[in-house]
Amino acid sequence: MAVSSLRVRPEDWTPIGVKSLEANALKVVRAGINQSVIAGPGAGKTELLAQRAAFLLQTEAAPTPRRILAISFKRDAASNLAARVRKRCHSSHASRFDSMTFDAFAKGLLDRFGQALPEFWRPRPGYEITTYYERDYRNFLDLIAGSPPGDIGTKASLRAIGAKSFERKHLLGAPLPVAAWPKPDVAQWAMARFWHYSLHEGKKSVLTFPMIGRLVELLLRINPMVRDALRLTYSHLFMDEFQDTTQVQYDLVHTIFCGTDTVVTAVGDNKQQIMRWALAMDDPFSEFDADFGGLRTTLFNNYRSSPDLVRIQHVLAQALDSGAMEPISQTEGTIDGESCVILDFPSPKTEARHLAKTISAAIADKKLLPRDFVVLVRQKAGDYADVLRPAFEAEGLSLRNEAGTAGQIMLQELMTEDLSKHLGRR
């Protein structure tokens, strides 16, 4: 479908490439204020943002030559949104839409302007990007950091910080001070040592992406010309997968755009926070609404799941939030009768026996084969297999754990390869 490059009056604009949008989605698309949008599974978050981009660009609500910045947590989400905008907009409009991850956004700014950082915080050109794990922080606190000065603390107090909390609460827990810490406590001394060790003591500076985010937030806080240039460039900001936003990422966005004329739209699902282990904030939506004056809007349609699946999802959502609203399925069920069910068992062994008997009965009654059944588990398939195997064997069924290995090769990877590749191997 050809998309016009001509300007459209806001009152004449209609959604592009879709039959319609639900009422709340259309309000989000047309809004001129900061918004936080709660969009559950199948709500069409990518389509919502693409339609909003189309509206802003085609009506000049995002005035030329200003641009729209979309920041996502994952690379595939950023690329999918960019591709959707190209489908919904003329190329002359889509060229003013920048979609990238938080990490790419921060790294680009550090690479361009990092030499403007104070000397203590300035990485050397050609820095390396790494990932630090708990063992690395433990090794640093126990061995590399050394002993703090006597008036600051002891080796024991340094170790008492704990490797688990060092990154989240201390190293990355708050914006960086301009001049390090003039009168540090033991945790601040350890942070200064770690930053100096990473930035200045090796052959190259070595940084994680969250450390880059902290450096860039400081860079923009103390360099108003760079900060103002970003504010002038972007009239609108989209934040996708907002439920997984970390404090580092939020602080960076806050420093750049809070209190400006840039209109911010944060979209995500507060029932799908799966990244808290990776520094995600506990409740980014409430903090955003308070800081940016965001208007909270909820989308209700589900374009992906059948009515039965929506019903099941709502049961799970209510377990997290008793006030959760039930989504409205926009698809038709294709299975006669009950297509899914939630069963609660008093013990893993009871669950295993029920599952084995159910599969055994289905094989006998419906003339199915064991290969017609799969048991999916969230993680640690080997632990589940140990519980399930005796119950399955009692029903004459064998159980294969495809998360297991044959030598050093995972079975589930081996099963997806073309058998012909292995024929004739000696």
Automatic annotation (TrEMBL):
Q: Which GO terms describe its biological process?
A: recombinational repair
**Entry keywords, A to Z:** ATP-binding, Helicase, Hydrolase, Nucleotide-binding
Q: Could you tell me which residue ranges the UvrD-like helicase ATP-binding domain spans?
A: 18-306
State the InterPro entries in the record: DNA_helicase_UvrD/REP, P-loop_NTPase, UvrD-like_ATP-bd
Q: Which residues bind ATP?
A: 39-46
One of its Pfam families is: UvrD-helicase
Q: Which PANTHER family match?
A: ATP-DEPENDENT DNA HELICASE SRS2, UVRD / RECB / PCRA DNA HELICASE FAMILY MEMBER
Name by which UniProt lists this protein: DNA 3'-5' helicase II
